[in-house]
Amino acid sequence: MNNHPVSIDRPWEAESQTAFLQKSGHGYRVGIPEKKNFFKEFSFAFRETFFHDDPLYHYKDQPRRKQFWLGLQSFFPILGWGRHYNLKKFKGDLLAGLTIASLCIPQDIGYAKLANVPPNNGLYTSFVPPLVYAAMGSSRDIAIGPVAVVSLLLGELLKHEINPKKHPEEYLHLAFTATFFAGITQVALGFLRLGFLVEFLSHAAVVGFMAGAAITIGLQQLKGLLGIKNFTTNTDIVSVMHSVFSNAHHGWNWQTVVIGMSFLVFLLTAKYIAYRNHKFFWLVAVAPLTSVIVGTFCVYITRVDKDGVNIVRHLDKGINSSSVYKIYWSGPYLVKGAKIGILTGIIGLTEAIAIGRTFATLKGYQIDGNKEMMALGVTNIMGSMTSCIVATGSFSRSAVNFMAGCKTAMSNIVMSLVVLLTLLLITPLFKYTPNAVIAAIIINAVVGLIDIKAAARIWKVDKLDFLALLGAFFGVIFKSVEVGLLIAVMLSIGKILFQVTRPKTALFGNLPRTNIYRNVEQYPEAVRVPGVLIIRVDSAIYFSNSNYLKERILRWLRDEEDLNKEHGLPRNQHLVLEMSAVTDIDTSGILELEELLKALKKLYVQLELANPGPLIMDKFLAANYVELIGPEHIFLSVDDAVAYCTSKFKATENT
After folding, report:
1. Which spans are transmembrane here (predicted)?
2. pLDDT tens digit string along 554-569?
């Protein structure tokens, strides 16, 4: 900061100002921030928390008619991209929509089974929700519908409240209630701009949770893949494997095993070919529908269903019926549905926003997280009223959508129309579809959720993150999906708390022939300054870590004193605290710095502060800490502080 005159409303004495100017040879001093009133500080903090993206920027200096139109576009992006839509874009969207429709139809039937609802409800979820999202969503690439993890979580939570086999109608009503509240949760998070709450699930915890859920889903499909009738209702790996092997002698159906394994190999082979050569991406989409068609035809002509091969049996023909009257608007199931909806809604958001941002980055555009939340929320609210379960972005379908060349959200509309035709015309044809084929399709779909590369990268980069990954993973496969989710959240928050309460500190030294000071661990050639201990604090100083920092700094001093005695070096008479990384400090932090100052004086060590930021200086002034430590002990840089300490040493020697 330039050497400007000091404002008269600052609580500084003239002689204190002079001290600041005298100790710096280059004519600069530690800046004194302008005093802000409480309202301005609160307004700034509020804007940065909830409106960091400056959503009203595009409305500035615009006529009211234009502002009204921009407002409509913000809620319905289709009004924006629809004005510039053309035949070339439609060709790409048509191909992409047809491709993902061929993938979603068999997947929807399988995901409905995961949620323990009739297959029709899975298909309904790929009809109405994609239409709503196409009008309100900002992502060009997300394919909307039921997904494996959310469907499994929904099914697990619902069956704890109502048995789907004994009370199927009540169970379905609770599913619609949960879907409604999932939408309400998503809309609330978006409208109140609380999207940052979703980010409390760390990437590592999500990777572990998804991998554990994928394995759990795959193990659940062994019932259909092997033709087991008496299968456990638990989802943990121990119960499932016990159920599988206890039925090995008499419970497996060999025809089912042959059908399931054959189509699983076919699906995995198609996926491998597409992975190795992106020109064959369409195989990923065509293979599941081909499996359903071929499997259904084979069962129909051989009638192996009479030999114990389980089939879908019945799918109602027709479009979604209204389910408004089926939602629990009162009673005990209202609260239970709300709890389930909140959980599934948040997980659905996490998955959809991650997918949307991934493909937006690849195509070079941005999506608004809060608008996405509102779009998904309205999608699920409308879905709950039209017999749908929770819908969100599907990674497998979105990837196929992207590779098929989609241009806009019109591909979702095309997919929805294909599903509509399926519901109106050909659902009875799925009667003979073997459950083993559906199981193989689901296993093939969830294999992609196991991200080994991401896990390996997390292990290389951050071992603590990897522990969070393992905790979420083992919680899901050894206990349940909801326990795994709880562990994922706890570990994510726990890591934040650990980093806040145990911040990093570093010992600094001088790089030879320079005035630069750096971490001696990172730069072993950095030389310690005799008689001066330089410590950098790499965190804000709050009540949660201030006592630890004080004790850690004193421990640094003690350890360095021991080294000095061992090597015959002079004792440290000055402790320089490098504060450029300290972004904030509270009253507890200032009190602990006062205690540190007292403790150092007892040890005949002078505390020096280097480069405190404007917010820190403002609070130091308000708390009279500058007067306590003395303005001559606050410096613009570490080099200035060391120069001051060295001059004191020389003055002492001369006397």
Report:
1. 68-85, 171-194, 200-219, 252-274, 280-301, 340-362, 374-396, 408-430, 436-454, 466-493
2. 999 999 999 988 888 8
